[in-house]
Specification:
It comes from Cellulophaga lytica (strain ATCC 23178 / DSM 7489 / JCM 8516 / NBRC 14961 / NCIMB 1423 / VKM B-1433 / Cy l20). By secondary structure, the protein is an alpha/beta fold. The chain is built from 17 helices and 17 strands. It folds into 2 domains: 327 residues, P-loop containing nucleotide triphosphate hydrolases (Rossmann fold, 3-Layer(aba) Sandwich); 199 residues.
């Protein structure tokens, strides 16, 4: 497995005329200070920020208006990333920098390619699969000082741009989902998107057929296809053909518009229902605010009840309200077009009134009548019914539309059936990628590794009997007392890191741990934490450890590159000119 290793971080603030740079060892690194507020956490956060993640940075930091350069390697290849606000540039080996206007999209795809990160997540708007930003790759490799010790898989901000992503990302990192799974999932999403589009077209076609039935007079095919043409002169035939085409054009436009209107009205109803349900969801989470998790009273699914989750609900509601406004605006436009089309249709009918007055076609229609007698028998009589040209033309035009639309519907229904079969087949292929034996092996491996770390960290007072897979992270957070719970959380993160190394399908990143001495660990337990990180991790692993000066760090310090921050914090005016030259030359 290839390894990502951070080489150097450069920080420059033109507004404060200060800067700094930090170089890292390929193995152990200790970022320390005597004072607890000089920027240890900010330093490692800027590593991730500089590469395209969104760690929680102090609001005061944003006032420095800083830019960064992060240099890292994967195997023998060197990479450099420059970032200023959301503008980011990537340099691969000795090539020129490539500039990107945003983190998502092409930049995320390129970084994922470098890191062999194949996980994909569905776009909230389109449902199509896309490469998520770098934060989703770095999640198992960074333990944030504040966020990570109270909630797993929550190291960065802006992760909720995707719905229900945690299970997918956790499974990918530990090998429960393979790169091939996402290839097939992407194909499934594309086919589902096409199927939904075709299905909506079928619904419009059905609406169009209903509208045509309302507009055209009911005349037998014999009348519209034969009789009228037998009675007309060649000149009238030409006029009839022109009128038929004109009527057909207007009718086609009108039926299409009516179909669009009905479709939009349906979408309006659906969107209004979504807004109502989201409003209920939000109220429900507020009423249950004391719980970390809540069970949906309708479907029984357990959901997270975090501020982020509630914000996500309100964001969804806002998007739905915007969508509703767009639908109403479009409906207003459609109604105006329908009024205009009806006006044109009336004009077209007026243009053939003179011909209607001169020519009338009669058709014999059977009429059933009841004859009152002793046996009350029923017989058919004949009724003579007259049709004028206007009715004939509308019937011909309407039937032409029906025939064309019905053929189109048949093709689309067949297309939907084919797409459904394809989607089912792709699902079967996905199920065959990982067997039940594979899943059991991976879960058993996790349980064994987790149990070992629990023992090494002396967190055995924590009940781990119900923690059976990497997906049981919420159970880890809830178990144990404050100090023991923190060690159990560390055991979980280290287990995931080990699982990535053993089963992952990606480059293994450096491990960054911010302040493991959580909840005032006893001297003995803190020593066990440091010893584990010093002696029980792979020699190929790069570790960046943020910690206050402590006697139990002695063994770690002997093997580590030490970065000691002073009271001047991260940025130094004395470093400004030197670092600025590096930025200018990049």
């Amino acid at each position: 497995m290839l390894n990502l290793k951070f080489k150097r971080l450069l920080i420059l603030s033109n507004s404060t005329k200060s800067a700094n740079q930090f170089e890292f060892s390929e193995t152990l690194n200790l970022i320390t200070a005597v004072d607890n507020s000089v920027g240890k956490s900010t330093l490692v956060k800027l590593l991730f920020w500089g590469i395209g993640c969104e760690p929680t940075l102090d609001t005061n930091w944003s006032t420095t208006d800083s830019k960064t350069i992060v240099e890292f390697s994967v195997d023998t290849n060197d990479y450099t990333v420059k970032r200023y606000k959301n503008q980011i540039s990537l340099k691969i080996k000795d090539e020129d920098f490539v500039d990107y206007e945003k983190i998502t999209g092409e930049y995320s795809q390129k970084v994922a390619e470098i890191l062999e990160f194949k996980a994909l997540l569905p776009n909230r708007s389109t449902g199509l699969m896309e490469t998520p930003p770098p934060a989703f790759y770095f999640l198992p490799f960074y333990i944030d000082q504040k966020r990570s010790w109270s909630k797993a898989w929550d190291n960065f901000e802006k992760l909720e741009q995707y719905k229900n992503w945690r299970s997918t990302i956790v499974k990918y990192h530990v090998g429960l989902l393979t790169p091939k799974h996402f290839e097939l999932e992407s194909k499934k999403a594309e086919k589902k998107d096409t199927k939904n589009l075709v299905q909506s077209q079928i619904e419009r076609i059905e609406t169009t057929l209903d509208v045509v039935e309302e507009y055209i007079p009911h005349i037998t095919n014999a009348t519209t296809e034969t009789k009228e043409f037998e009675l007309l002169t060649e000149e009238i035939k030409v006029d009839l053909k022109n009128l038929q085409e004109e009527q057909e054009k207007i009718l086609s436009q009108l039926t299409s518009l009516n179909g669009d209107r009905v479709y939009l009205e349906q979408q309006q109803i659906i969107t209004e229902k979504i807004i109502s349900e989201l409003d209920k969801d939000y109220k429900f989470t507020i009423e249950n605010i004391e719980e970390d998790e809540i069970e949906c009273p309708l479907c029984g699914v357990v959901h997270e009840n975090s501020i982020i989750n509630r914000t996500s609900i309100m964001t969804d509601k806002s998007q739905a309200e915007n969508q509703l406004q767009s639908i109403l605006t479009e409906l207003d436009k459609i109604n105006k077009k329908i009024d205009n089309a009806n006006f044109k249709l009336d004009k077209a009918r007026e243009s053939i009134l003179k011909i209607n007055e001169k020519y009338v076609i009669s058709e014999e229609l059977p009429v059933s009548k009841h004859i009152e007698n002793t046996n009350s028998v029923k017989r058919d009589d004949i009724e003579i019914k007259d049709f004028n040209f206007n009715q004939i033309i509308e019937n011909i035009a309407g039937n032409a539309i029906k025939k064309s639309v019905l053929n189109d519907k048949i093709e689309k229904v067949n297309s939907v059936d084919t797409l459904k079969k394809d989607i089912r087949q792709l699902g079967k292929e996905q199920k065959g990628l990982i067997t039940l034996e594979d899943i059991e092996k991976i879960n058993n491996s996790f349980s064994s590794i987790f149990s070992d770390y629990i023992e090494l960290l002396d967190a055995e007072a924590v009940n781990i009997s119900s923690i059976e897979s990497p997906l049981d992270y919420n159970k880890v957070i809830k178990e144990g007392g404050a100090a023991e719970g923190s060690r159990a959380i560390l055991a979980y993160y280290l287990s995931i890191f080990t699982m990535v190394e053993e089963y992952g399908n990606e480059v293994k990143s450096a491990l960054v741990i911010d302040t493991p001495n959580q909840q005032e660990q006893s001297d003995t337990n803190y020593e066990k934490i440091v010893n584990l990180l010093t002696n029980r991790t792979s020699k190929k692993t790069q570790i960046l450890l943020c910690a206050m000066e402590n006697e139990h760090l002695v063994q770690f310090k002997k093997k580590a590159k030490i970065i000691t921050l002073t009271k001047d914090r991260l940025l130094l005016k004395s470093e400004y000119e030197k670092v600025k030259k590096v930025f200018d030359n990049k």
